[in-house]
Amino acid sequence: MAKSASVFGPVQGIAPGHEFANRLELWSAGVHRQTQAGISARQGEGAESIVLSGGYEDDEDLGAVIIYTGRGGRSAESQQQVADQTLTGANRELACNVLSGLPVRVTRKVTEAGRSFYRYAGLYRIASYWAETGKSGHRVWRFRLEELTEWETPPEATGSATTAPDLFTAQEPGPAYGPAPRRLATTLRLVRDTAVTRQVKLLHDYHCQVCGVRLASPAGPYAEAAHIRPLGAPHHGPDTLANVLCLCPNHHVLFDLGSFGVADDGTLLGLAGQLRQHRQHLVAAEFLAYHRVHFYEPQAGELP
Amino acid sequence: MAKSASVFGPVQGIAPGHEFANRLELWSAGVHRQTQAGISARQGEGAESIVLSGGYEDDEDLGAVIIYTGRGGRSAESQQQVADQTLTGANRELACNVLSGLPVRVTRKVTEAGRSFYRYAGLYRIASYWAETGKSGHRVWRFRLEELTEWETPPEATGSATTAPDLFTAQEPGPAYGPAPRRLATTLRLVRDTAVTRQVKLLHDYHCQVCGVRLASPAGPYAEAAHIRPLGAPHHGPDTLANVLCLCPNHHVLFDLGSFGVADDGTLLGLAGQLRQHRQHLVAAEFLAYHRVHFYEPQAGELP
């Protein structure tokens, strides 16, 4: 029996609010293709759907935003977190959605007037992920889900579920792999500099503090300022020189995704070498530590 | 006399719609600090302001969007384009705004009922730039300006013009360098994959077609798909395999900014080497040519 294809995106005929009596119905309808597990995913492709059962102490369901906790490390009997989680298995698949931009179908278990049932909530994107110490004191992986309010289905697949193309025969995959993005990004992610981000680039003359490369373009040199402890919720890092690094786009991606970390003394972790330093740019150890704790995930034998 | 500091952003007391009798008044008010030139810029920092005089055959003023033509190559007598423009001088400064995200103040010369005057239009961002063959048959550089509808001034500088910090003494530059961005980008620009962008990454196994690097993260491998002829207006390139390259973020930036090009046979221009090819990934020469014509700007002696 051939492994069934991944199905990302909406299921034909099932709109947000649709109710199901139990997990079996949810499974039959194709909304969540696991009868017990809370996450349905295809290895290497990402998570298709999740079910929020309300049983996990670390989840925060805020409606349009869900802070979802990963799997693993729980006692089957007590349902309590008894060990650290790792970014493997289903957790890795959830993180994969961050990179691919593919949505997850979200369903909530609802209890009203003594009756339990399942209500499909619609599509969410997984915006970001990080590690935390959960209420139990163990490490848990957290995923920020944001409700998708716009979703275009390609004309050829209107109303149908979307399936992954057969990747080994078609050079030109069918458009029904996933709905076309509402806005196709065609240019760089160009972010307005703050005084701080501009300053760090000038101090390092646009050289990457990790690899030293300096990207030159006809429009001038190009580098990116990475906030070590991210700005905004939930990390609330400051926009200050002590909390930024001047990086090339490649090392910015790797840093944000936790491929490497930086020790308090500037030694690189997960990569060889030292951070390039500048006497007028003092990076605060507290932010490097925050990044190590919440993002850096050492990979056995895997150096980029 | 010290060189005056750059002034980006709004000028205190001057709102969009404010009228000036002539260029001298515009200059005195600090809105456009050149009495004759259409662009006011500081070398290496970007363009602060422009004046649209309506005299240039290639400009398109659509109100909220302006397709602005660069300077150079014009006959002083006939005001006609008589030679190719290059991405140097004021043109390079306009391109610099694309990288830094700093806004330009835009003023229009208006003729109504036989009277000419200048009307300040407000702040625009320079979203992108490219080269074209102008109406004259010569190469011109084009800049897409988009009206900025949101602009926050930092509390410390409410209502004041913003000035660049003294970069050689302060480690922590004053917040008044520029208004804080409404939305500070703290994470990657993660774009939803289309079938095509996903396919090209899978075919090349996330290896950059220019340098071969493969970025590994705990969430999986990461690469970017660059559309050779950009999607959307004004380039209208298709979202097809023939029009994409699998690149690392660094080479994606360099490609989009015109630091290098690709010859029809896959030879790299402006860089050493050849594009990595895959037998199931045929890149169309027409798109490579489009990119060379509209973006690639050979730099004398400057290899990234």
UniProtKB/TrEMBL annotation, chains A, B:
Sequence ranges assigned to domain YDG in this UniProt record: 9-147
Keywords for the protein's UniProt record, in alphabetical order: Endonuclease, Hydrolase, Nuclease
SMART domains: HNHc (SM00507), SRA (SM00466)
Example GO molecular function: endonuclease activity
Pfam families per UniProt: HNH_2 (PF13391), SAD_SRA (PF02182)
Keyword GTP-binding appears in the UniProt entry: no
Nuclease in keyword set: yes
PROSITE patterns, A to Z: YDG
Lineage top rank: taxon: Bacteria
Database matches in InterPro entries: HNH_nuc, PUA-like_sf, SRA-YDG_sf, SRA_YDG, UHRF1/2-like
Designated name of the protein: HNH endonuclease
Organism per entry: Hymenobacter ginsengisoli
Lineage summary: Bacteria, Pseudomonadati, Bacteroidota, Cytophagia, Cytophagales
